[in-house]
Amino acid sequence: MIQENLAAFPGREVFFALRFSLPTQFKDSLAMLFTAFTRLALLTPLLLLTSCTPQADSPPPKEEVSSSESTENAAAENDSDSTAEMKTEDKPASSEPQTWKQDSISLTAATWPQVQAEIAKHKGKVVVVDLWSTWCLPCVRELPHLIQLQKDYPDKVVCISVNLNYDGRGEPAEQGPEVLEFLVSKDAQMVNFLSVTPDMKVYETLDLASIPVAFVYDTSGSLAKRFDNEQNEYGDEGFTYEKQIRPLVEELVKGE
User: Fold this and answer.
1) Helical pair 199-206 and 112-120, crossing angle rounded to 10 deg
2) Bigger pLDDT: 16 or 75?
3) Are the C-beta atoms of 195 and 163 separated by less than 8 Å?
């Protein structure tokens, strides 16, 4: 029966003979070898995949840069730095102080150090500096006398008004139009400043309790007299230009 089946399938005799005639130990060895090859075939792709994946902590590979590219990059960085320096140099150091003008009257925003710099510019003349505000009634009362003093001595006296309306709230420039309108109404043709330093800071700097306050400087630039009424030196009325300041100024002008 077996031989008839083998005759029906030529070429299968050897396989049939091996399968049914190999010893048991040899068949076990072939099975083990087949299993080993199978496992190796399955593990090889996994090993290859693992070896090609970079570690998470390892830095990315650096691109090599040729010497010519390195030189070009350095030149570009130098050009960028020099351009930045040029832009910095071309930028103006500071803007001009804000000024309000109407007719022949002008008002300039300034700090107290800038007021002091203005005083120092007028050595050889008597300088009168008046600190005032539009809400200060004694200030408003006396300011026209300061203006008249400037008109009476245009070549020998420099009168400077410093407005202290700014109290630190909002922007100093918000006070400009109102103060200028008041000065124009009084025809204040003299040096007029609007303090951009809050009024209380000015009081602290100058050790003042209140305004009005006037400073009179002689022709050498030295302070001749500070007028205030903190010690009630001038009574309830306070100091006035006609009684105290003008006589001192005329004395200093004569003694120049």
Assistant:
1) 60
2) 75
3) yes
Q: What phi, psi does 224 have (nearest 5°)?
A: -90, -40
d(CA 78, CA 86): 12
Q: In the structure, how many helices (H) and strands (E) does the chain have?
A: 9, 7
Do strands 126-132 and 157-163 pair parallel, antiparallel, or not at all (unpaired)? parallel
Contacts of 242 (CB under 8 A, 6+ apart): 145
| pLDDT, tens digit, 9 for 90 and up, residues 138-160 | 999 999 999 999 999 999 999 99
**Distance from C-alpha of 98 to C-alpha of 173, rounded to nearest angstrom:** 8
**Separation of alpha carbons 237 and 186, rounded Å:** 22
Q: H or E stretch including 10?
A: none
201, exposed or middle or buried, with CB in 10 Å at 0-12, 13-18, 19+? middle
177-230 tens-digit pLDDT: 999 999 999 999 999 999 999 999 999 999 999 999 999 999 999 999 999 998
